[in-house]
């Protein structure tokens, strides 16, 4: 807020405590934040700064873009917290260096192909009507249609966002030490959760269940991780395919939120029937508090499901506890996943 | 962040100070904030809460919408700060009661017809290409095409957002007491700035300049304010029409930002030539600090101009000072407008 010393100081009359339109203004224009971040990523602005560009002119040359466009974009990205600017020069923040510079192993820019895809964002183009009807306006069953190609995009682009959770699932799965472990990874996607279990425990064998087009991505990742000989593919619909248990461990990562509670409970029953006595389920989810309005990321995930699914939701721990108990499980423990807005729920048969 | 007492406390491992993907996640999904606010306004949710509805069920009945949709929407609006929720019941915040309840005189919901119009938001649908080219991809000259009907929408819907600035322009114009005053209101829009001057000073006569379709709105407002007998219409293009001075006062509210600096300077020269000696210009604008990245609202307005105009910008006070001096003005004073993110610059001939 510092002003240049040669500018007269504007006279600021005392403002009484009263309503402010600031939040309204910022929110009606919030869609421009998404657009600006995307432009910065697509133009490689963060990478160009990481490589040493620091003025609008030098960045424009590196990004093959207009200096005026880059100047305005970089100023905006500074305002919304993705860059710092001092003495007219831009630099990356700690977050941008880690997640937005293409050279970083934690680069998240690839996620936009899924999270800002026309399919997902289209779910919010007429949210008024979605709220009227209480269900997605997307054709068919929204993102939960069989073989929806968006899940291939998901499997390809989401791994960096999931790094913390993948590591944590591996750790939790290894509690009790190395022992023979047959693992079912339901809606495996990129497969990284099951693969993390296999990497921690040489006696673990993974059965990865997903649509067949998605399983190609999981299989490639299993091969790259050197555990393909302990990695089996089970293509199909989680609600219909024979699980062919028994399993010691079942992984359900980011799946339940797509469905209504009775559907989730029916899946929990099916999982229960496939587990050995003492077997466990690890459920990775966006889990808001019982008030359903905190913490911000899990609580706001509910709207994502309203816009893109027929009846999905972000369920509370209380919801999951009730659901798993009704399906026959004896107890459930919630764990906060480090470096992630998600929780991991351990359910014991 | 409080959890219900019947939930086990999740174990939260200590997280070292390290990069966080939270801002990234919130920004890729920020477009949903705009969609949710719009849905809340269009469904009359804020008005329904103001009228006494406080549960998802009662609000759904009032808004003729799905209880599931309303519950998820209201939880989301709570997360992003537009509602409060306690014991499962929603209530308005101070800001929402003032600006989002249709019964409030300061209701801002009508603004969406302009600020979230397909035309304006379309300017950001491919921001990457806009930044590459350094100019709006909108057809013609973006929002500055002659007779663009969006300015009629602007004139109709923006007055509530401008209330603080309108009051302040009236006050500043009245400095020096009541005296004969011929006033030119350039790009008058709704006309409220000139009308505020006329209401403060019974000897003031206003000439309102804008596209003829827009001037109908201004004339109606002048009539409603009871000053139509001192209100003259001057339809046309501010850069081409004969101002027919001299004037003691010229108002330039939210106009300069649409153009590049040489164009602004040519307009300032034309204004200078139409002023009496000692005459003043009042320029209402989004004026970022010299760093161009603060305060947030004026600084981020630059992106709005990148997306929607050929060469507009949010200029600093230093820019305006240089421009008005080059056009012959002797000095310029910046004033912060109370209850507004904008500044008023007084330029003296």
Keywords, please?
homodimer; about 350 residues; alpha/beta; seven-stranded mixed sheet; two-stranded antiparallel ribbon; 16 helices; globular; disordered N terminus
Layout of SSEs?
Two copies of one chain form a homodimer.
Chain A: H1 22-28, H2 31-42, H3 45-50, H4 56-63, H5 67-79, E1 83-86, E2 89-92, H6 94-99, H7 112-115, H8 118-122, H9 127-133, H10 150-157, H11 163-173, E3 181-186, H12 192-200, E4 204-210, H13 212-224, E5 231-235, E6 247-253, H14 261-274, E7 275-285, H15 296-308, H16 317-326, E8 331-336, E9 343-348
Parallel strand pairs in A: 3-4, 3-6, 4-5, 6-7
Antiparallel strand pairs in A: 1-2, 7-9, 8-9
Helix pairs in contact in A: 2-5, 4-5, 10-13, 11-12, 14-16
Structure characterization notes:
The structure is a homodimer of 349-residue chains. Chain A has helices spanning 22-28, 31-42, 45-50, 56-63, 67-79, 94-99, 112-115, 118-122, 127-133, 150-157, 163-173, 192-200, 212-224, 261-274, 296-308, 317-326; strands at residues 83-86, 89-92, 181-186, 204-210, 231-235, 247-253, 275-285, 331-336, 343-348. Chain A is α/β, with parallel strands linked by helices and 349 residues long. In chain A, the strands form 2 sheets. In chain A, strands 5-4-3-6-7-9-8 form a 7-stranded mixed beta sheet, sandwiched between helices. In chain A, helix 12 (192-200) links the parallel strand 3 and strand 4. In chain A, helix 2 (31-42) packs across helix 5 (67-79), helix 11 crosses helix 12 (192-200) and helix 14 (261-274) packs across helix 16 (317-326). The longest helix of chain A is centred in the C-terminal third of the chain and has 14 residues, at 261-274. The first copy, chain A, is globular and about 65 Å long. The first copy, chain A, starts with 21 loop residues before the first helix and ends with a strand. Mean pLDDT of chain A is 92; it is low at 1-9 and 11-16.
